[in-house]
Amino acid sequence: MTSRSTFRRHRVVVLALDGLLPFELGIPQRIFGKSRDAGGRSLYEVVTCSVRPPGPVATDADFAVLVANGPEALATADTVVVPASYELGPVHEEGVLTPELAAALAHIRPGTRLVSICTGGYVLAAAGYLDGRPATTHWSHAEHFQRLFPRVRVDADVLFVDDGNVLTSAGVAAGIDLCLHIVRRDHGTAVANDVARRTVVPPHRDGGQAQYVRRPVPEPQAATTSAARAWALGRLGEPIQLRDMAGQESMSVRTFTRRFREEVGVSPGQWLTQQRVERARHLLESSDLSVDQVARDAGFGTAQSMRQHLQAVLGVTPTAYRRTFRSSGRDTGGGPGGDGRSPGPLLGTARAGAVG
Q: Does pTM surpass 0.85?
C-alpha cells in the first residue's frame, strides 16, 4: 500500500458566483469535507474561491459570504465544483461567459474533473465543456438549457449524469446525491455510506432516478410501498416477484406498480436492480467472496447476469471493479487514478443510472 508520507488529499475548489444559493454552496464542504478513510484521515481538501480577488460574494439570501480566495485557486484544483447561481447574466441569457468568468475558468488545468450543481451547468456549457456530452440540470430549466446549448445532450429526467471527468446534477438535493456518488466512485461504498450517515441523508439515490416525483409524500392515511421495499431489501439474495412485493402491501400488482413509481420515481424492477447492484458493489469492495458467490448473494443468480448489470451501470466488470477498490491508489487521496486528477477506470464515460 502507499506509505503515509505520500498521502495527498484530493483538492476540491468550489467556485462561488454572485447570486449563489448558500445551501448548494455548502454541499461540497459537507460531503467531501467529511469524507475520511479507515484511519480517520480527511480524503479531500475543500477550498472556496471567487472570480474576483478575495472579498464578499452576494447570495440569493439577505446576506453575503466572505470568500478568502481569488480565481487563482482554480489552478490548484483536482476537482472544480460550480454550484447554482441566480445572477448568471449573459451566461443564462445568451449562453456566453463574461470576460471576468472566462478569465477565471482559464486557470483550470487540463484534465481537472468538472462538476456542476443545478444551474451551475450553464457555466460549464457556456465554456464549451459540455459540448457533445450528456448532461442534466434542474428540470424547470432543462428546456431553456437545451435551446441555449443545442450541442449538449440534455436529460431532464435524471438526478445526475456522470460522463467521466465531467459530471452534472439537477437541483438542490441532487447535488448531495452527485457528491456522494463521486465519493463512492473515488473511495468506495463504505466511505460514502459513512458520510451519508453523518449527514443524515440516504446513502444512495441512483443517477437515473426521476428528478420530479409527482407524489413523493403519501397523502395522510394513504397506503405506501415502504414495507414492501424493506421486505425486499431483507431478501435480495432470493428470487423476488412483483406479485410478492405487492402482496406485502395487500395491493394488486397494477396498483402497487403505480403507487411505487409515484413514491420512488422508478419501477419496482428498476429499483430492485439498483439495490442489487449496490449490494454487489459492497460485497466486491468489502469481502473476499468469489464473483459467483457475490452474484448469488446480491440476487443476480449467475456471475454472467451480474457482469451484464454492472457493465451497464458502472462500465466495468465485477473483477475490474474489485481491483479498482483494492488498488494502492485508494490511499493517495487522488481518486481511482491515484494521481489526484484522473477519474480512472471506474464508471469511465458510462452514464450513471443505466440499468441493464
A: no
